[in-house]
């Protein structure tokens, strides 16, 4: 893509952005980061996912599968 075509693409993108969000959208800043409640919900979700993952990995079936995989890898003949 040459420079002139890229500049036209950027201009078209800027016009579309300003048509959608208004000319002051760039100055106002649409995304100013997460609020405290969003951090709290994200942290709770991450902790819940970690707890579920821990339970799955430490379950008997997964533990024995991992042990047999490691045993087979160590017993492999070259």
Please describe what this structure looks like.
The chain has 78 residues and is mainly alpha-helical. The protein has helices at 3-21, 25-28, 36-57, 60-74. The longest helix is centred in the middle third of the chain and has 22 residues, at 36-57.
Concise overview:
This protein is an all-alpha fold and 78 residues long. It has helices at residues 3-21, 25-28, 36-57, 60-74.
Number of helices: 4
Strand content: under 5%
Beta strand count: 0
Gyration radius, rounded? 26 Å
Question: What's the pLDDT, averaged over the residues?
Answer: 82
Shape: elongated
Largest sheet: none
Could you name the ranges where pLDDT drops below 50 across 5 or more consecutive residues? none
End-to-end Cα distance, whole Å, is 52 Å
By secondary-structure content and strand pairing, the structural class works out as mainly alpha
Helix content: over 70%
User: What's the SSE pattern?
Assistant: HHHH
Question: Can you give keywords for this protein?
Answer:
mainly alpha, 78 residues
How is the topology of this model organized?
Blueprint: H1 3-21, H2 25-28, H3 36-57, H4 60-74
């Amino acid at each position: 893509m040459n420079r002139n075509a890229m500049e036209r693409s950027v201009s078209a993108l800027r016009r579309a952005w300003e048509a959608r969000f208004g000319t002051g959208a760039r100055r106002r800043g649409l995304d100013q980061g997460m609020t405290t409640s969003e951090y709290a919900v994200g942290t709770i979700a991450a902790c819940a996912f970690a707890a579920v993952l821990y339970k799955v990995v430490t379950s008997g079936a997964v533990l024995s599968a991992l042990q047999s995989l490691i045993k087979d890898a160590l017993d492999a003949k070259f």
